[in-house]
Amino acid sequence: MAVRFKSSLSTALLSSSSLNYFLSASRKPSFRFFHLRFSSLSRTLPLFPRRHVHTLKVLAMAERSMKTASHSHKYTNRLAAEHSPYLLQHAHNPVSKTPIFLSFVDWYPWGEEAFSESRKRDVPIFLSSRFSFLFLFYLLSLLPHLPLHFMVSDGWKPLVRCHVMEVESFENEGVAKLLNDWFVSIKVDREERPDVDKVYMTYVQALYGGGGWPLSVFLSPDLKPLMGGTYFPPDDKYGRPGFKTVLRKVKDAWENKRDVLVKSGAFAIEQLSEALSATASSNKLADGIPQQALHLCAEQVGFYCSSQDRKDNCLDPHQKEILAFFSFELAGNYDPEYGGFGSAPKFPRPVEIQLMLYHYKKLEESGKSGEANEVLKMVAFSLQCMARGGVHDHIGGGFHRYSVDECWHVPHFEKMLYDQGQLANAYLDVFSITKDVFYSCVSRDILDYLRRDMIGPEGEIFSAEDADSAESEDAARKKEGAFYIWTSKEVEDVIGEHASLFKDHYYIKPSGNCDLSRMSDPHNEFKGKNVLIERNCASAMASKLGMPVEKYLDILGTCRRKLFDVRLNRPRPHLDDKVIVSWNGLAISSFARASKILKSEAEGTKFRFPVVGCDPKEYMEVAEKAASFIRKWLYDEQTRRLRHSFRNGPSKAPGFLDDYAFLISGLLDIYEFGGNTNWLVWAIELQDTQAWTLYPVPSPILGGEDPSVLLRVKEDHDGAEPSGNSVSVINLVRLTSMVAGSWFERHRRNAEHLLAVFETRLKDMAMAVPLMCCGADMFSVPSRKQVVLVGHKSSVEFEDMLAAAHAQYDPNRTVIHIDPTETEQMEFWEAMNSNIALMAKNNFAPDKVVALVCQNFTCSSPVTDSTSLKALLCLKPSSA
After folding, report:
1. pLDDT averaged over consecutive 10-residue blocks of the chain (880 residues)?
2. Strand, helix or coil for residue 574
3. Distances in Å between the alpha carbon of 330 and those of 14, 300, 319, 333?
4. What share of the chain is helix, strand, coil (3-state, %, to 5)?
């Protein structure tokens, strides 16, 4: 639900004499402002021209050689006991050989020790929060049409300052002395403590109109915010105060104007708490809103209202006003030349792909096949362009974070687990619609990359790989993309006789190939280097050479393998081996779904490196191992609570909304795609815990129970990752289609209320919550289709029937399978849904697997072969 701050909040904060004292020098009168509703906050953003944001320029500023005076740790601070790779980078002083950042600051982790020290010394806290890796561009991934706000003024370039501030300030002995003498300094890894980061980022956004990382906030000993910002240069420049000046002013205000400062911090928290409280005017959505929101969101993403006439016809006056105000939303529409939804820098945005596929299915079911096919073409073409572009790692598999240009060519080379899981599912969905093995091979490519490079010894799935690495073992500095890029000569030396074919296929040139867009390499960092991209289809290239396409593809696969083997000898990018529950949940889902959807691949399909071509059932084993790791290490069987992450042991942070929601979704996929009933039982347990721990009505939020977190901030945006609230709606729809009785009634009401809380968001800003639009529509469907399979789960026939049940794309379908000979299963269903148990008893045949398709309280006649089941599921709703 979109909420607005009372005008008194920003007015009172900015008019506070103490805050004005800090801000007067940092606000230039040349700024122009406009009002914007963004992330549930009404705020003011500085408007400045969009410029290209390129990570390599920042790396050039930030990288430096580490001259080692000694191999021993002369000084170790409290971060050495932490698990976060980011915090461990700051655990030692510059004489150590191991730290990435040579910080002189006496850092504390977030916790009572730091708070107690602040109270004992009677000094403020300085909080610095950022990511484990340097350049996630999280704001762009949320709203790609917005320029990044890094407190930029005339003469400044909007460069990402995360790493730069580490080097400029925290490695500066003078700055460190001020921090150590006047403050208690706390480091937070926002991936490990998103709840802490969210509170103070919300404060900075509300106060200044924008945010970003690094997040720099000053707090009172009782954790109330006093003043904050993002990047501060070390010294005064361009009319803005440097970090040292800010430190002196905060110290002076703390000593001389403490009462005013503390009151303003308390007032800020009070106003934020009031503004962010989630309330609903009724207990359920008004009629018609789910369908309206789905239609409006699909229009905005796909830009269906491309002509003024259609725009006038399909939007009501209020919606037109919103879209006119957010005219940049329509700048983020479908790109018919290069695919995707948005302009450069270009993000995959899987939640929008998911929305468009859901919209496609609704159009198809309503008989609008022409419109449905247009939507499908948009999605399919976008996924093709992404897979052929440099944002896809053609040699090792998987996808990089995003493309800096419009043609998906030159990426930011970081690889994130949450992208891999969501994109694998997107390619699986399009394969299930088209049966084109191009899409199944890309999904395998992603999953095989994860299996090879990102899975730990107990099946846990790691978080990310960094963008930069050394060009050689003795290199003094790291460079972005060094592990992934090639010179033309390197390719020739490795591949040999087929080098010309390979170079033509992947657009490899002696001068380098980062020339397809002026945004690809504006600073010539990649001069003479090549990022592999497929600009022509294999069949056309093979035909040009007079070669069978199968032979041509075999050669490409062999060449990729040779380059992969050579690449193994290069220094690898840093691996973030933190295990995050929510991200594992996304990956678990894709592995589980692949285990059955890929069984629809044509017999004899040939796979080429880096695709392994394993039996799809192996993917289910990966999903179950990852889930088992979480249950073993990050779940308390007594309290039924999750921990957020694991690295060398469970983290101190509790499980958050995303952890519960994404894991529940993954567990439901394990069950529906063939896993044992115990996974469903665990999903139900987690849903109960989420309901009474994270959803104290009426507040669906990102949450935990840490008393040091002053606000519980509602997540209401589907961005690089879906909102936990959106996923929760879909989870509740799926679960309530399986269970009955009091559990059904209670959680059905929870879903109704959750959607009601977001009613204004769905009406006014559907584009911000594409996945919730899908969830709202799913909830409104009168009766969800249920496929019930009855038989021995160990049989080949059962596997075939289960694959048939999932062969067609249908997000409004639930698959329930039950073996009546298993006492534990029967006891579960008799307790949770006696109708399912009765169906199993009445339809069990010892030598067959029986399938029934049920909807609107009516079931089809039983079928006992996969072909008949597929035919039954292909019927239109009216025919069925």
Report:
1. 42 46 39 28 30 37 37 60 71 43 73 93 89 42 34 31 54 80 90 85 76 81 86 73 86 91 85 71 82 88 48 44 36 81 90 96 94 96 98 98 96 96 98 98 98 98 95 90 98 96 98 96 94 96 96 98 98 95 98 98 96 97 98 96 94 92 98 97 96 56 66 80 95 96 91 90 90 95 93 94 97 97 96 95 94 91 96 73
2. coil
3. 33, 6, 13, 5
4. 50, 10, 40
How high is the pLDDT of residue 375? 95
CATH 3.30.70.330 holds for 78-138+155-280: no
- Residue 128 has a pLDDT of 87
Do residues 179 and 202 lie in contact, with contact meaning Cβ atoms separated by under 8 Å? no
**Confidence at residue 829, expressed as pLDDT on a 0 to 100 scale:** 97
pTM of the model: 0.84
Eight-state DSSP code of residue 861 = P
SS3 218: strand
Cis peptide before 85 (omega within 30 of 0): no
Q: Pick from 669, 656, 722: which is nearest to 695 by CA?
A: 656
Please give the single-letter amino acid code of residue 510. P
**Tokens at 730, concatenated:** 């879909």
Fold of 785-874: Glutaredoxin (3.40.30)
Alpha carbon dihedral 427, 431, 437, 440, in 10-degree steps, equals 40
- Main-chain dihedrals φ then ψ at residue 409, nearest 5 degrees: -95, -70
Q: Distance between CA atoms of 855 and 877, rounded to whole angstroms?
A: 9
Q: Residue 157: which residues within 8 A CB-CB, separation 6 or more? A: 51, 57
Please say whether the beta carbons of 301 and 355 come within 8 A. Answer: yes
Q: How many helices (H) and strands (E) does the chain have?
A: 35, 22
Specify the pLDDT at position 284. 79
Domain 78-138+155-280 identical in fold to domain 785-874:
yes
Complete DSSP assignment for 701-719: -S----TT----PPP---S
Paired strand residues for 76: 92
Residue 723: φ, ψ to 5°: -65, 140
Burial 11-44 (b: 16+ CB within 10 A, else e): eebeebebbebbbeebbeeeeeeeebbbbbbbbb
Whether omega before 345 lies within 30 degrees of 0, making that bond cis, reads yes
Task: State whether the Cα torsion 95-97-99-101 is positive or negative.
Answer: positive
Q: Would you state the pLDDT for residue 58? A: 35
Residue 578: strand pairing partners: none
In this structure, are residues 852 and 839 in contact, taking their beta carbons and an 8 Å threshold? Answer: yes
**What does 117-186 look like in DSSP terms, one character per residue?**
HHHHHT--EEEEEE-SSS---HHHHH-TTSPP-SS--TT------HHHHIIIIIT-HHHHHHHHHH-EEE
Neighbours of 259 (CB within 10 A): 9
How is the chain split into domains, by residue range? 78-138+155-280, 785-874
* Res 262: pLDDT: 87
Q: Where are the beta strands (DSSP E) in 199-289?
A: 215-219, 225-229
In this prediction, residue 91 carries a pLDDT of 65
Task: Tell me what pLDDT residue 380 has.
Answer: 97
Q: Which residues contact 531 (CB under 8 A, 6 or more apart)?
A: 390, 409, 410, 411, 481, 484, 485, 513, 514
